[in-house]
Every structure is written in C-alpha cells, then in structure tokens.
UniProtKB/TrEMBL annotation:
<dbReference type="InterPro" id="IPR029028">
    <property type="entry name" value="Alpha/beta_knot_MTases"/>
</dbReference>
<dbReference type="InterPro" id="IPR051259">
    <property type="entry name" value="rRNA_Methyltransferase"/>
</dbReference>
<dbReference type="Pfam" id="PF00588">
    <property type="entry name" value="SpoU_methylase"/>
</dbReference>
<dbReference type="InterPro" id="IPR029026">
    <property type="entry name" value="tRNA_m1G_MTases_N"/>
</dbReference>
<keyword id="KW-0808">Transferase</keyword>
<keyword id="KW-0489">Methyltransferase</keyword>
<dbReference type="GO" id="GO:0003723">
    <property type="term" value="F:RNA binding"/>
</dbReference>
<dbReference type="GO" id="GO:0008173">
    <property type="term" value="F:RNA methyltransferase activity"/>
</dbReference>
<dbReference type="InterPro" id="IPR001537">
    <property type="entry name" value="SpoU_MeTrfase"/>
</dbReference>
<dbReference type="GO" id="GO:0032259">
    <property type="term" value="P:methylation"/>
</dbReference>
<dbReference type="GO" id="GO:0006396">
    <property type="term" value="P:RNA processing"/>
</dbReference>
<protein>
    <submittedName>
        <fullName>SpoU rRNA Methylase family protein</fullName>
    </submittedName>
</protein>
<feature type="domain" description="tRNA/rRNA methyltransferase SpoU type">
    <location>
        <begin position="33"/>
        <end position="166"/>
    </location>
</feature>
C-alpha cells in the first residue's frame, strides 16, 4: 500500500460504472422489513451490486425510501409489489425466477456454500421481529443462513441482506 498514489476521491470516480440498468437478474425484496434505515441501507446495497429493489406499494415504503435514498436520485430501480405480496411472488415464480429466502431455518444453505446466481433471482428478507412468514418459506427454492458464532440470535436484516446480495452477485 505504500506505493499508492491515486487519491480516494479519484478512486471513487474511477470506480463508478454509471447509472443503474434494470436487467432483472437480482431483485432484493425486503417485503416484510419495517424500519426506514434498513430500507435505505438495502437500496444502497442494490446500487452497489447492480440489483433492483422490490417493496410493497404502500405509503410507508414510499416515504421510507424517499428518506433513506442517499444516492442523489441515481438510485437503482424500484419494483413496486402489487396488488399483494402473495400475488407478486406467484408472478415471479411463474416468470421463472428463483426465490431465495435469507432466514434462519432448518436445512438452509450456509452462506459460504452459496453459489452466485446463475438465474434471475428474488432475494427475500424478513421482518425485524417476526422474520419471513413460514408459509412463504415453505415455497422458496432455497433458504440461506448466515453462520453466527456470537451470543446474538440474528444479524441486522440490512447487514444479512447485503452479505447475501454480494454473494449472489458474485462479488464476494
Ligand atoms: C432480526 S432478523 C428476525 C429475527 C426474528 N426474531 C426471528 O426469529 O425470525 C430479521 C431478518 O434478518 C435476516 N437474518 C438475520 N440474521 C440472519 C442470519 N444469521 N441468517 C439468515 N438470515 C438472517 C432474516 O431475513 C430475518 O428475517
């Protein structure tokens, strides 16, 4: 690192690839996530990995994302989930997308063994207190669990979603 000459602001500029283009390969779907800060963080992760964000079309999500959008308008595209989460999930399945849930669950794939996404994938994230509903978990193609060795029972949902999104995007 001693030979590094390029300054950080220049590096930031060099590494910008330009505006988001929706190519539907990875859609991060925090359909049950409630807190504004977590939604804002996930929006930035989508930008970083070239993914899209999908959230219910409700005033709560619109306001949370307007508040949490720190990307100065150059944010990734948002897919509005309507008329209901159930119908939208059925449509994604019918369109051939893989549904991957990030959740603590029996039989889940440990994160280090997760392969980058080859097919178009929807990444589901659960509520801060209640997780992903069991009925939804029963229908996903794969569930991913992030191993933890500490005392806490779970990670912050935006951290968990970001770790898995990076892996699916083939960037970690
Ligand atoms: C704070 S956790 C929910 C904990 C909730 N009390 C429960 O028991 O389901 C919120 C969300 O973060 C994600 N999450 C957090 N830690 C995780 C882990 N270690 N592995 C997989 N998903 C995790 C899941 O999507 C989960 O639904």
């Amino acid at each position: 690192m001693s030979g590094a000459k390029t300054k950080r602001p220049e590096l930031r500029e060099q590494r910008r690839r330009g505006r988001h283009r929706c190519w539907d390969h990875l859609i991060v779907a925090p359909l049950w996530v409630a807190y504004d800060a977590n939604l804002g963080t996930l929006l930035r992760t989508c930008d970083a990995v070239g993914g899209c964000l999908a959230v219910p079309r409700t005033p709560h999500y619109r306001q949370a994302l307007a508040k949490g959008d720190t990307l100065k308008g150059r944010r990734p595209c948002i897919h509005w989930v309507a008329p209901s989460k159930e119908v939208w999930l059925d449509e994604q399945r019918a369109a051939g997308k893989r549904l991957v849930a990030v959740e603590l669950a029996e039989g889940a794939t440990p994160l280090p063994r997760l392969e980058p996404a080859r097919d178009s994938t929807v990444l589901l994230l659960g509520h801060e207190h209640h997780g992903i509903p069991d009925a939804v978990l029963a229908q996903v193609d794969e569930c991913v669990e992030i191993p933890m060795i500490g005392w806490g029972a779970s990670l912050n949902v935006a951290v968990a979603g970001s770790l898995v999104a990076y892996r699916l995007a083939g960037l970690s």
